[in-house]
Amino acid sequence: MKRHILRTSLTIVLALTIRQVEALGQNESHNSRRPHGIEGVWNESVTFRQCDTGNATGTDHAMVMFIRGGTLVQAADHLASPGLGTWRPLEEGRYTSIFQLFRLNADGSLAGRSKATRDIELNENAGEFTGTSVLEVFDASDKLIFTVCATETATRLD
User: Fold this and answer.
1) CA dist., res. 100 & res. 148, Å (int)
2) Which of 30, 31, 95, 115 has the most CB atoms around it within 10 Å of its CB?
3) CATH class of 40-156
4) Helix (H) or strand (E) run with residue 25 in it
5) CA 54 from chain center: how many Å?
6) CA distance to 36, 59, 112, per residue, from 101 (Å)
7) CA 69/CA 2 separation, integer angstroms
């Protein structure tokens, strides 16, 4: 009788465990298709602006990858190294990030570095974001030479 109760109990525990594992697997599969906030890869269009007037001074395109845990990598279409940095949430749908990159001369030598601080707001379905940035540009001796502002729009790369 004790063996029968033990066998029945183990069978029930095993069945419940299998059911729980299956449910977790389905949940993970469902969640992997849903965006995790800002995490993922984004195509960006950047408009540089004079900070005091807001007048546009140029444009750029970039790709940025926000990595789970709060790091990011950014690549732009100009002479520069990839940007490396961090991000963090502020409140629902809002984030801030900071990254740095090395600016290069046409011959590949070091021109200096840039440091960007950015505020980001996701749209309702987390498929697009808008942002504002302040970019500090330093020369090769690490002296601040100018500051530029930017507005950004981005779409999630699916």
Assistant:
1) 14
2) 95
3) mainly beta
4) helix 2-33
5) 25
6) 26, 17, 9
7) 50
| Six-digit token string for 103 | 């600016």
Distance CA 150, CA 88 (A): 20
Q: Where are the domains of the chain?
A: 1-34, 40-156
**pLDDT tier at 13, thresholds 50, 70, 90:** very low
**DSSP tally for the chain: helices H, then strands E:** 1, 8
Token readout for 158 is 């699916």
Instruction: Note whether 87 and 70 are within 8 A (CB).
Output: yes
How many residues are listed for the chain in this entry?
158
User: Looking up tokens 């807001």, which residue turns up?
Assistant: 54
State the distance between the two ends of the chain, measured CA to CA, in whole angstroms: 58
